[in-house]
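Example record for the data management plan.
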Amino acid sequence: MRFRFAIIAAAAALLASPAWAAPEGSGFYTGVGVGMSDLSSGGFSGNDFAFKVFGGYDFIKYFGVEAGYMDGGSPSDHGFNVKIRGWDLALRGILPIGERGEVFAKVGEVWWHVKADGFGSDSGNDLLYGIGGGYRFADHFGARLEWERMDVQDTDSADLYTLSGYYRF
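Corresponding structural encoding:
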């Protein structure tokens, strides 16, 4: 719990810092992704269409912070539906590949809400982590593939696989 608090506090402190000249490879970006959610818990295993919106700031070409909203749709199994949604805040470690590519890993916190048909709903916050890769096609436009895992309470796994387009300011 202290580790998660430290991540959030560090990200908030960096976001609140006064503006400075942005080095190459840094700056604000925003994007939208579509893909699939995959949820497993006990005997339940389902997936559905998912989407996410996100925005972030890369402080240098190797490090940034990102926040987003994800809608995991309504995965179903044997007629049983579960809706999953969440907000997240994460630190991103970035490894540039050439002039336009990158691979990245992220770790942070997700504030999730799950609603199971016939069983009510639950909310909480847990660890979020993921990996991905991206390519900038032009000075401002790019795409990325990403896998994210949310350690949602009482689940075996809650994953999000997305293909996203983004705009870098």
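Summary line stored alongside the record: DSSP finds one helix and nine strands in the chain.
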